[in-house]
Write a structure and sequence with these properties.
Helices cover 10% and strands 48% of the residues. With 547 residues, it is mostly beta strands. It holds the Pfam family DUF4179. This is DUF4179 domain-containing protein.
Length: 547
């Protein structure tokens, strides 16, 4: 599974005007992260190696690989997101190992273990081998509910995958923690097992910029090709696909090229305010003959079969013991981190499942002048062990999200107060925007391309500008090592700030940025500014002692 990084959501930020409400602006980013964060629970996952399914919007979740210590279970739980923390809690007595089984529609479902942490309840489940189950690409439990003995209920979601070695479906059910530091009898009820296979639809129209394609699919009936661009050794395809489903990402729509399973390249679902999905796919040109773009096919998961079973499990849940094991510490360290990156460490929280570092980020325009830093590598050294983690948003209300670094813990100490701990942040990517400098005057634009070079923070940026109809088009790029590209530039026209249409770069994009300023043919007295731009700076990598 690949992650689409929160830093890329920041690229979707419409540049501010003098009257911009910056709190509302950041809230919009957080809502975008919130939407993407929900996808891992709803996005269907691959069943086996027949097709590599890479869910397009997976934010704020991490996959950790480990050898499970789940005693007596000859199953590979490695691909369950968060299993390391679950396994750690169970091994140290802060959860419940269960061996309950229920059979319906000829299929046996098992409840293998349950853990809670005050925020989430997580249950490990499995389905026994069933003839033909390995022939599907993805699986989903139709509906899941968790109820306590008083009749209080919470909805739950699930992730399932097919384990080739055991022949079982393995997965995790997750809900808000209904126990909340108490002991209660709980009942988990699951209904329907839905089976999916990929469906492929040949496109009858060749791909070209501006093309409108009727696919014949009831789920994704139309496509509009926004652009088809060749850059160096890559073919970049951006398109809008319409969808009849209220959750269009879940079925993983994408283009594939070539015979057999074909290639899907590198796929990203970009921020988009309209109906449907805006998708970018990058293919290596060695994979694609541009003269045979009719060889592209639309592919997505199609519901193949439904097993109309109903499975129920009742057990006594214990949320007390795990809640008593939580270690917290207010943090006053990290002055260097706050100064160089605008990040303040607030609190350390250690539970049997995970270690959380609550942080506060300064995303003000004043901080952007100095640089807002995103760390691609987040590591926690615990004793002599290093644990990989990442950024997360905690909570369900976008207005009250807690920003944090989180780590799935595979170690446990009865007394954490004496355990050496150090935060290691690397891969620093800096985003800057400074309207007090970096302005470049432009000659009156015409249909002929005019080119300039400017130096910003020691990076040489090339850009070309010209009129396309009534619009001003600006293309920018840089060959300077470490430069990450322009997210959104801006103009000063007769002293007024003007912004282009927002086009997200997508992750790992380092090519040419093409921006369109509407009505640019009437612009006079034009100054250009790189606006939001990104670069890598190893000098901002930092280590902070926590304990």
């Amino acid at each position: 599974m690949e992650r689409v990084f929160e830093s890329k959501v920041r690229e979707g930020l419409q540049a501010p005007s003098a009257n911009t409400d910056f709190d509302a602006m950041w809230l919009a980013i957080e809502r975008e992260v919130s939407y993407r964060k929900s996808v891992p629970q709803g996005t269907l996952k691959p069943a086996n190696s027949k097709r590599k399914l890479v869910p397009a919007l997976v934010l704020a979740c991490f996959m950790f690989m480990a050898v499970p210590a789940f005693a007596g279970v000859a199953m590979n739980w490695n691909y369950i997101m968060g299993f390391v923390g679950i396994d750690n809690a169970l091994n140290n007595g802060y959860g419940q190992r269960l061996q309950q089984s229920a059979t319906s529609a000829g299929i046996a479902m098992n409840l293998n273990g349950v853990v809670t942490d005050g925020e989430k309840l997580k249950a490990l489940v499995s389905f026994d081998p069933n003839d033909g189950m390995d022939q599907y690409d993805a699986y989903q439990i139709g509906s899941i509910g968790i109820a306590d003995e008083s009749g209080n209920t919470v909805p739950a979601s699930s992730n399932l995958y097919f384990d080739q070695k055991s022949g079982k479906l393995l997965g995790m059910i997750e809900s808000n923690d209904i126990l909340q530091k108490s002991e209660k009898k709980l009942t988990i009820t699951a209904q329907q097992l839905i089976l999916y296979n990929y469906k492929e639809i040949p496109l009858k129209t060749a791909l070209q910029t501006g093309a409108n394609i009727t696919t014949g699919s009831p789920d994704y009936p139309k496509m509009h090709i926004e652009s088809l661009t060749k850059e160096d050794d890559r073919l970049i395809v951006r398109y809008i696909v319409s969808a009849t489903s209220p959750d269009p990402v879940r079925l993983d729509p994408h283009l594939i090229y070539g015979s057999g399973n074909g290639s899907r390249g590198e796929l990203t679902v970009l921020p988009y305010d309209g109906e449907g999905l805006l998708i970018q796919q990058i293919f290596q040109t060695a994979e694609v003959n541009q003269n045979e773009t009719e060889s592209f096919r639309l592919s997505y998961l199609d519901q193949t079969e439904t097993k109309n079973g109903k499975w129920s499990f009742t057990f006594k849940g214990d949320g007390k013991k795990a809640s008593k094991a939580v270690y917290t510490k207010n943090l006053n360290s990290g002055e260097q981190l706050q100064e160089m990156a605008g990040i303040r460490l607030e609190k350390l929280i250690v539970s049997p499942q995970k270690i959380t570092l609550n942080i506060e980020e300064d995303n003000s325009m004043e901080q952007y002048k100095h640089g807002v830093v995103w760390y691609n590598s987040v590591t926690l050294a615990v004793g002599d062990k290093e644990i990989q983690g990442g950024f997360d948003l905690i909570g369900s209300d976008p207005k009250r999200y807690q920003h944090a670094y989180q780590f799935e813990s595979s170690v446990w100490y009865e007394d954490w107060s004496t355990v050496p701990m150090k935060l290691i942040l690397g891969g620093a990517r800096v985003t800057k925007r400074d309207t007090t400098q970096n302005w470049t005057p432009l000659k009156q634009p015409t249909e002929l391309k005019q080119s300039l070079e400017v130096t910003v923070d020691k990076f040489l940026i090339h850009f070309t500008y010209y009129l396309d109809g009534k619009d001003l088009v600006v293309e920018s790029w840089s060959d300077s090592p470490g430069f990450g590209g322009i997210s959104q530039s801006m103009l000063s026209v007769n002293g007024n700030e003007v912004y282009p249409e927002m086009v997200s770069n997508g992750p790992n994009y380092t090519g040419k940025k093409v921006e369109r300023y509407k009505g640019g043919s009437g612009f006079e007295n034009i100054l250009w500014n790189p606006g939001f731009y990104n670069y890598y700076d190893s000098q901002k990598n930092v280590e902070v002692k926590l304990n």
